[in-house]
Amino acid sequence: xxxxxxxxxxxxxxxxxxxxxxxxxxxxxxxxxxxxxxxxxxxxxxxxxxxxxxxxxxxxxxxxxxxxxxxxxxxxxxxxxxxxxxxxxxxxxxxxxxxxxxxxxxxxxxxxxxx
Amino acid sequence: xxxxxxxxxxxxxxxxxxxxxxxxxxxxxxxxxxxxxxxxxxxxxxxxxxxxxxxxxxxxxxxxxxxxxxxxxxxxxxxxxxxxxxxxxxxxxxxxxxxxxxxxxxxxxxxxxx
Lengths: 115, 114
Prior knowledge:
Largest interface: A-B, 24 and 27 residues
Structural class of chain B: mainly beta
Distance between the termini of chain B: 36 Å
Number of strands of chain A: 11
Order of helices and strands of chain A: EEEEEEEEEEE
Largest sheet of chain B: 7 strands, mixed
Order of helices and strands of chain B: EEEEEEEEEEE
Strand content of chain A: over 45%
Radius of gyration of chain A: 14 Å
Oligomer: heterodimer
Number of helices of chain B: 0
Number of helices of chain A: 0
Structural class of chain A: mainly beta
Distance between the termini of chain A: 41 Å
Radius of gyration of chain B: 13 Å
Strand content of chain B: over 45%
Helix content of chain B: under 10%
Helix content of chain A: under 10%
């Protein structure tokens, strides 16, 4: 079955440190890949997406992610964490079989940023 | 502004009662979705609809029902058959012609069963 794995349900970094949130997918078919962010008691907001164009994708708020087919990964990074980055982050995939419009989500990673 | 509106934001229900969560969008999107979110489990798909008067079960449809009589509206009913209904419910939509998979989400509805 197609799935998404996010390593680490909780990640804690210092303000100004590198943010690295890991995402791996399981499929031999190239998917579309997404990172969403969720603030407490709110819906999800798209950070960035990969849809088979450039493998390094830049998103909002200084985040970027790199699609690595050989590693089936799509890790999210930000060079310098800000207090406002504290939130829950979800990796998601979609496939041609679902018309690319049926997303499968990972379990989420909660990012804490401390002074 | 265009967007997705979910109501109510918070809802309390007694066991054995059915409740209906509202989802309205003015984005002119064809496809609409309902997800359930539980801590540590991510989002799980309940139902989705790609066109008016048609909808399909997702991964956890048991105990839920939906209707899609208008393009703008996709209400979700949590029935008394749902054994563990306390959760955060998210509605989303996308334009099927885009085929990019980017979903637009509402603010969510938190249901608590007393």
